[in-house]
């Protein structure tokens, strides 16, 4: 980065001083996870593209998050059964640096400000680098990968040739491919939604709620007849994580979204958003919505409400929510049962306007190759292994005969993984696989241990989210990014501040128009236009 103006403008000398101690703490035990720009290049005999193991004596360096479940056993990916097998299969030794948990953003910024980049960095280059991937390439931080993939990554090249929409997702507006992507399988796009205590519904002889009115009746029954102190709860991390459940019933969203005509809108200034706020305000006042929802950033407190019979409904994850809570809840009460509920609508039989749905390309867990890479061809060949058939099996399932076996040709996690008396499924799997990262996801991979989880996906995917969710990989221009940096953080912060005040009754809803005017004055229309222009360019790629 020394040859660019980015670090000089954005990062102070104090950050550079802090860099030395921070990165040292994050490095591997044998000395560091970042590459240097030495002119000396080790002699390397590379095998033919797509052939493994590669004959090389080089070590490459990778900066990436390590899964929290894996850290139950190992502090570094190189020491895991997955890391050791990946090295054996590819022939490439890798020195990993992992940012401290909860400090990824800060340590990424420090890393970019340094003159000591690793060969590859796994991060969200779309939203986390000022100016996005086009600017990162212009700043000589990462390199365009078109030619390298064409010559040295036959597995990813084949996938892109077969799926032009995927190829389009991986490019900037100027046509530069900038990452090796995490590719979700079709059945991995939906994994979060409303869920409710089915044992309570059965006891109270209530149907599974589908409309806002039915939900209100159910939540009231949970409060009055089951003693629930927080009938509906949800996680809170700078905003109430309802994933547009309940709010979406009013044909809007608690974020940027696309309307029925495909135009970008900012939901929190829609007229109908006021109706959604009125509903949540009413539920809060009546004790149907968790009175302490803004304190639910602590995962333990949130979990305690679900499994401690304080709450009977939430919006949560399939594995880390429903599966985890069922495991714990059933130990205390064998009748404990959570099931998925449809995203609620205003009218019976309506299809939900929006819900949680991801795209096949996941920017947050994809890898770019930096300009510091001494041998980018080797890095690209190593990365391409994840898209080969054996690589796909390793990244998704681990080691055959150890973490999984084939049953009628279908990979199935072994009893060693699924029946450990001390550790849960996610913890065991994380030692042998890479739960998130640049690889091709497999539709047979599942952490589901209950039939209720299998059923949940089919229920939650019954929304029009595919039409209304804005792609996360559209690319603002450098100038647009500068403008966005001034606008979005302040707008979103003000929105959430007012959201909480409106719901809690600290601000009267009569002030909604004043709130919208303030949003306009803050530049919300400019922000929407930036999204719209970026989306228009994406659609023309």
Description:
This protein is α+β, with helices and mostly antiparallel strands. It folds into three domains: 6-187 and 360-432, Periplasmic binding protein-like II (D-Maltodextrin-Binding Protein, domain 2, 3-Layer(aba) Sandwich); 192-356 and 455-468, Periplasmic binding protein-like II (D-Maltodextrin-Binding Protein, domain 2, 3-Layer(aba) Sandwich); 478-539. The protein is built from 22 helices and twelve strands. The protein has helices at residues 6-10, 13-26, 81-90, 104-113, 132-138, 146-152, 154-162, 164-169, 198-204, 212-226, 271-285, 299-307, 318-332, 376-384, 389-397, 415-418, 425-432, 451-460, 465-468, 478-504, 512-522, 524-539; strands spanning 59-63, 93-97, 120-122, 180-183, 192-197, 256-258, 264-266, 313-317, 338-340, 361-369, 404-407, 410-413. A hairpin with a 5-residue loop joins strand 6 and strand 7 (264-266). Helix 11 packs parallel to helix 20 (478-504) and helix 20 crosses helix 22 (524-539).
Itemize the secondary structure elements and their pairings:
Elements: H1 6-10, H2 13-26, E1 59-63, H3 81-90, E2 93-97, H4 104-113, E3 120-122, H5 132-138, H6 146-152, H7 154-162, H8 164-169, E4 180-183, E5 192-197, H9 198-204, H10 212-226, E6 256-258, E7 264-266, H11 271-285, H12 299-307, E8 313-317, H13 318-332, E9 338-340, E10 361-369, H14 376-384, H15 389-397, E11 404-407, E12 410-413, H16 415-418, H17 425-432, H18 451-460, H19 465-468, H20 478-504, H21 512-522, H22 524-539
Parallel strand pairs: 1-2, 1-3
Antiparallel strand pairs: 3-10, 4-10, 5-8, 5-9, 6-7, 11-12
Helix pairs in contact: 2-4, 11-20, 20-22
